[in-house]
Amino acid sequence: MMIWAALLLLFILILAACNYGGENGPLSLEEAVQVGVQATLTKEAWLDGVETARKTAIAAEASGGSDSGQVANTSTPTVRPTREATATPTLKPSSGHVQFPGVIKELVNSYLVDYNSVDYADEGVTYGDQFRANILERPFTSVEMVYQGYIDIIRVNLKVSDVWTFVIIYLAEDLPDSGSMKYGFIIDHDENGRGDLLIQTGLPANAEWSVQDVQIYQDLNGDVGGESPMINDPPDETLNGYEVLIFDSGEGDDPDLVWTRRNPDERNSLQIAFKNSLIGNTGYLWSAWADDGLKAVDYRDYNDRFTEESAGSPYPGSPLYPITQLYSIDTTCRSYFGFTPVGNEPGLCP
181 lies in a domain? Predict the structure, then answer.
């Protein structure tokens, strides 16, 4: 009985999604399933059988498609040089730390949940990716589709005190002892879908607060998101993403502006603390991300840099499977703090 209820729920979600069209017209079945998946993310408990229904729907589409069947893309990812962001003239060496993050309170002020790809990790597939909407669920290596649970975000909590904002990122698997991956947080001041500030950190060394390998970038020229924020546009090499570096491992106007550490209570979690003065007294949209692939702030947003064909797809049965040039990345939808959203803000979690 529960499975039939799940199937009915998914059918309703797909019908609703099919009525939503982008610039290219109504969504396909695969895209509709993606929207349906995203719409369930606000539920704390999944209905039994929803995953089976999704898988069955996609398999049905694949079996009813062209005679050519599944086409595997075995091309290797394109390697490109990364342009360095420009440091502002005010970036200056640290003169010593005077203010450290305080105790994190229990109350959660804002949060979001993200699709957990671990269930089908052994099959090298996932059902949560929405390339066109800039919600990337791709915690897999290129072509081989090796699962990377340490960049698979499943939940993010935001806790705000008088001086500090704490971002607590939870992952599907424990953080490794070492690695070159990046984790981060995006702030959209004016809720228009364009990220204004990007905070990133390397893998924290331990559970002690540190500013090492922590940066804050700013998009001053407003080109993040391309012509249509959050919606993929044709690749545009003139975009430069987050082009200004305003904090780097303690260097900047305020050497205590942002800190990071491993969560001392959870091995699958890390924490970022930044001063509220970074944002000011204003509400904002926010999202989180984990990246062990391109790790290029000048290439954000990624879905404005690749076509769907070159990015590949993590969906089984898709002619674009597997992922290729856009890999090892997980980004979330956007939650909010400090204001009441209208509901049509770009990227807003359902």
Answer: yes
